[in-house]
Amino acid sequence: MAARTAPNDSTNIFANIGRAFSSLDDKLEKRQKTHLKNVYGSLAVGLGAAAVGASVHLFTNILRANFLLSLGSIALMFMLMSTPAVPENQKKRFGYFLGFCFISGVSTGPLLEHAMMINPTIILTAFLTTAFVFTCFSLSALYAPSTKYLYLGGTLASASMALLFMAIFTRYYTVMMWMGLGISCAFILYDTQLIVEKNRMGDEDYIWHSVELFIDFIQVFRYLVVLLSQKEEKRDNNRRRNERSAY
Predict the structure, then answer these.
(1) CA 150 – CA 103 distance, rounded (Å)
(2) How far apart are alpha carbons 36 and 38 in whole angstroms?
(3) Percent helix, strand, coil in the chain (nearest 5)?
(4) Least packed by Cβ within 10 Å: which of 48, 51, 113, 169?
(5) How does residue 3 score in pLDDT terms, banded at 50, 70 and 90?
(6) Which residues cross the membrane (predicted)?
């Protein structure tokens, strides 16, 4: 009997998720839905490019994260911003976007390398958790009143500055990581609603909007990798301490 009900349960879960997305048809205009499809489609491709970049760092000696690579990332961002968002520049700007995502993945390589040394499952757990968190916060922003989270802009800017000063003047590393994770999640709410409002006012630059969400996704992922690594290291240290005390 349980074997018969399990598929029904999973079907209900996927049906609920499908209804959550399809019910946006009543909230968003056709133009906004088309724009969001372009944004999230580009984001998915960008995350794939970042995954390739991280793999290049982890499994080859072709590229390693360094200062020059960081400068390349900044240069690509500047080129993307300075190139007009017109149809004839679309392929060029998308190439800049993919390059930025690829280098971001390479830059994340050292963090992933450290996590793999502790426990390789940390990376998959962090990615799946990030995808779940990102989806939930994105849907929350899309279902909320259109300007509800736009008022977070000033608060998030102040919180980001406070986090920067904490990083310089304090040693509360774990607190900073949790604070950074919370700020990054709030940015998902803010940026998602801002993208919808910008499109409502005529902004069709889906590539730049993809950059904003890509940065939010990567930031959440990095914070989760750090926090999960800390948790695993603490567990290992406690186990070793218990083993020593047993002797």
Answers:
(1) 30
(2) 5
(3) 85, 0, 15
(4) 169
(5) very low
(6) 39-59, 65-82, 94-112, 118-142, 149-169, 175-192
Lowest mean pLDDT among 19-23, 58-62, 140-144, 235-239: 19-23
Distance, in Å, from the CA atom of 125 to the CA atom of 66, rounded to the nearest integer, reads 26
Distance CA 15, CA 22 (A): 10
pLDDT band at 194; cut points 50, 70, 90: very high
Cβ–Cβ < 8 Å for 153, 170: no
Query: What secondary structure letter does DSSP report for 83?
Result: S
pLDDT at position 210 is: 96
User: For 72-104, what is each residue's pLDDT tens digit?
Assistant: 889 999 999 999 989 999 999 999 999 999 999
Q: Alpha-carbon distance 231 to 45, whole Å?
A: 31
pTM for this entry: 0.85
| Residue reference for tokens 């990798």 | 225
CA proximity to 57, closest of 45, 66, 44:
66
Evaluate whether 20 touches 139 at the Cβ level (below 8 Å): yes
Q: Which two tokens stand for residue 151?
A: 């008022």
Q: 8, 63 in Cβ contact below 8 A?
A: no
Write down the mean pLDDT value for the chain: 85
Other CB atoms within a 10 A radius of the CB of residue 172 amount to 11
Closest alpha carbon to 187 in 165, 156, 166: 156
Residue 137 CA to residue 192 CA, distance in Å, equals 9
Please report where in the chains the tokens 């736009």 appear, as a residue. 150
d(CA 49, CA 52): 5
Amino acid present at 40: Y
- For 92, phi and psi rounded to 5 degrees? -65, -45
